[in-house]
């Protein structure tokens, strides 16, 4: 986090804002969060805040546009596997089929602020939450007159840039090599300007390996298993944090060709990395990306 600022309490204010989002809005473990309340009210009509209803509308649109690759209703599937958690394990096929019945983004219907979710369905906004956090920080920064430029990184996978750096150069964000031996081995660098958001999804963030198979935290909603599209990481750049975050998750599930198509409809730039150390760049990403890791090669995306 590099903040060019003269405001002493800027960090505290942003910290409070983030805690508010995490605990008040998105957490499913905190009973008082809006998401927990929605989950508890599954099967009934509920009224959501303008804020949450707005996010859910965008999220439902992204789910639809991605053909369900991004799905906010995987709560039960995600908890069953608990990848990265204390109870992570490979569930039985029958258990997976059981929880899959309760997921599917069509189980949510929105009418203004009135929300209905089918009984048994459980929301998990883990794939968009950090992006929403970035959007809210941007709003917050715009109101802080003494801040002219900033770069924020939430959880290492969602980045926001604001304004111009003091020397006028673009912001350079390092992208992790998904198969790096050391944490500071980067795949390359992506240049961001002004108000842009970057988000990365990868199978190296939360995973375990059993019998040589990598079980990671990005689920294919059509199977209930970790997604196997051949990619190891996807980085997306676009105009809002929510979109960047949701699109990177969707693209991980969709793989290179279908993912690139989806990015086109959102006017977003992306890079995809595969097991064979290929890096696929969309047209817009070609102008932003510099490769650093020499074990990788840049390839064209086939249309
Ligand atoms: P990200 O790191 O942004 O790709 O988000 C991954 C997180 O989103 C996981 O830890 C789950 O909480 C949730 N998730 C996993 N698979 C999906 C999916 N296909 N669609 C939406 N959310 C997902
Ligand atoms: Mg995401």
For the CA atoms, what is the radius of gyration?
19 Å
State the distance separating the first and last CA atoms: 37 Å
Q: In one word, what is the shape?
A: globular
What's the number of extended β-strand segments? 18
Largest sheet: 8 strands, mixed
Which regions are unreliable across 5 or more consecutive residues at pLDDT < 50? 1-8
Order of secondary-structure elements? EHHEHHHEEHEEEEEEEEEEHHEEHEE
| Widest sheet: strand ordering | 1-5-6-9-14-15-16-18
What's the average pLDDT?
91
Task: Please provide a written account of the structure.
The structure is a single chain. The protein has 303 residues and is an alpha+beta fold. It has helices at residues 10-26, 34-40, 50-65, 75-81, 93-100, 129-142, 241-254, 256-265, 283-286, and strands at 2-4, 45-47, 108-111, 114-117, 149-154, 158-162, 171-176, 186-192, 197-202, 207-210, 213-216, 219-220, 225-226, 231-238, 269-274, 278-281, 289-291, 297-299. Strands 1-5-6-9-14-15-16-18 form an 8-stranded mixed beta sheet. The chain has a 3-stranded antiparallel beta sheet with strand order 2-4-3, with helices on one face. A hairpin with a 3-residue loop joins β5 (149-154) and β6 (158-162). The protein is globular and about 55 Å long. Residues 1-8 have low confidence and may be disordered. The chain binds adenosine monophosphate (AMP) and magnesium ion (MG). The site of magnesium ion has 7 residues, from β9 and α7.
């Amino acid at each position: 986090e590099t903040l060019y600022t003269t405001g002493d309490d800027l960090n505290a204010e942003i910290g409070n804002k983030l805690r508010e989002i995490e605990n008040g809005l998105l957490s499913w473990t905190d009973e008082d969060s809006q998401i927990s309340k929605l989950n508890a009210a599954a099967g009934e009509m509920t009224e959501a805040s303008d804020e949450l209803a707005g996010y859910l509308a965008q999220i439902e649109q992204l789910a639809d546009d991605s053909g369900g690759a991004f799905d906010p209703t995987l709560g039960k599937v995600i908890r069953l596997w608990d990848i990265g958690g204390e109870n992570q394990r490979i569930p039985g096929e029958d258990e997976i089929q059981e929880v899959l019945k309760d997921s599917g983004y069509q189980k949510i219907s929105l009418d203004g602020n009135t929300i209905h979710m089918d009984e048994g369905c459980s929301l998990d906004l883990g794939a968009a939450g950090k992006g929403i956090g970035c959007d809210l920080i941007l709003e917050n920064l715009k109101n802080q007159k003494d801040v002219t430029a900033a770069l924020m990184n939430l959880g290492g996978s969602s980045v926001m840039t604001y304004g111009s750096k003091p020397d006028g150069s673009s912001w350079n964000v390092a992208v992790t090599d998904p198969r790096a031996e050391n944490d500071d081995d980067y795949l390359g660098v992506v240049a961001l300007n002004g108000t842009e958001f970057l988000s990365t999804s990868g199978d190296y963030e939360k995973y375990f390996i059993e019998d040589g198979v990598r079980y990671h935290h990005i689920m294919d909603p059509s199977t209930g298993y970790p997604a196997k599209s051949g990619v190891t990481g996807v980085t997306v750049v676009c105009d809002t944090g929510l979109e960047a975050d949701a699109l990177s998750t969707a693209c991980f599930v969709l793989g290179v060709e279908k993912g690139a198509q989806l990015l086109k409809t959102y006017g977003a730039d992306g890079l995809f990395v595969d097991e064979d150390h290929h890096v696929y760049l969309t047209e817009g990403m070609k102008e932003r990306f510099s490769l650093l890791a020499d074990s990788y090669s840049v390839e064209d995306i086939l249309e």
